[in-house]
Amino acid sequence: MEPLENVIEIQNYLPHRKPMLMVDFILELNDHDVRTIFEIKPDNLFVDGTFFTEVGLIENAAQTCSAIVGQSFFMDEFKQVKEDVEVIGFISGIKKITIHRLPEVGNTIRTNAVLVSRFDTAEYSICTIECKTFCNETLILEAEINLFIQEKR
Q: Which Pfam family is an annotated match for this chain, by its short name (predicted)?
């Protein structure tokens, strides 16, 4: 992966840790958009032969998407990381998905997501997010995903 500047550690926005972490860094994040990067390594759980599988691409997309809503759980009003926050989150539905091709090991994928809708209660958030993943300049995944995220108490 090429050297990057001004990246955000994804671990500040997700409960995932290796080996289930499918995003290396957040390149850009605000309340409505996120861009991430992920290098596909040969020892990844979702590598089959020389390709990153469909499940890996979907998990990368979901983790990218959840950073938009996740920041409200993991960051305080001053954009400082909260300590000891535990959340549970999952894909509650995939409205549509198209996988155009699978990337090979050694490639770096970039995923962009945009918040479509969000519903918050005191206990949980439900959202719909559109997502696109690219390998080099080639579009490899398009999806619209529903996520459910809740803080454990």
A: ApeP-like
Structure tokens at 16: 């995932």
Token reading at 114: 């945009």
Pairwise CA distance, residues 72 & 5, whole Å: 24
- Separation of alpha carbons 24 and 113, rounded Å: 15
Contact between 114 and 53 under an 8 Å Cβ cutoff? The reply is no
Task: Return the domain boundaries, the chain.
Answer: 8-151
Q: What is the largest CA-CA distance in the chain?
A: 45
- 35-93: pLDDT as tens digits: 999 999 999 999 999 999 999 999 999 999 988 887 776 666 666 666 776 777 889 99
Residue 51: Cβ within 10 Å count: 16
Query: Would you identify the CATH topology of the domain 8-151?
Result: Thiol Ester Dehydrase; Chain A (3.10.129)
